[in-house]
Specification:
Order of helices and strands: HHEHHEEHH
Strand content: 5-15%
CATH superfamily: Winged helix-like DNA-binding domain superfamily/Winged helix DNA-binding domain
Oligomer: single chain
Radius of gyration: 19 Å
Number of strands: 3
CATH architecture: Orthogonal Bundle
Amino acid sequence: MNATPHWLTSEQKAAWDSFIRMQETLIGRLSRRLQADSRMSASDYIVLVSLTERGDGRMRFLDLAKSVEWEKSRMSHQVGRMTKRGLLAREECPDDGRGAFIVATPAGYKAIEDAAPMHVAQVRRLFIDALTQQELDTLARISNRVLAHMETQPD
């Protein structure tokens, strides 16, 4: 016998629904703008940012997948597409024959350097400019609290 679900209150549901609608609308608009401005998908951008924010522009495949919260198969397909376009390269890991490094190529660095200023301008226009600094600080605290809470919860 299943227990009765612990339904959300109307206030909790309104908060959740607003958050989801805002997040999906924002990500959708940013993704479409990124594609129009740079011909780069949001997934391309996420992977290149993850790699190029590191000093050497390289990560082990599984570490990259974990850093963006993707399944191995999704990361594998994405890396394959980006490798075919010359944005990434795969290098064997000398200490572990089963592992591989994913490396941003010069073309990958150029693509992210070209796309980032336009993307940041859109983030500012659609998100940052809508909030006060105090609201941004509060949102950061809330986001970090939820992230820390999720770390204690099983998938």
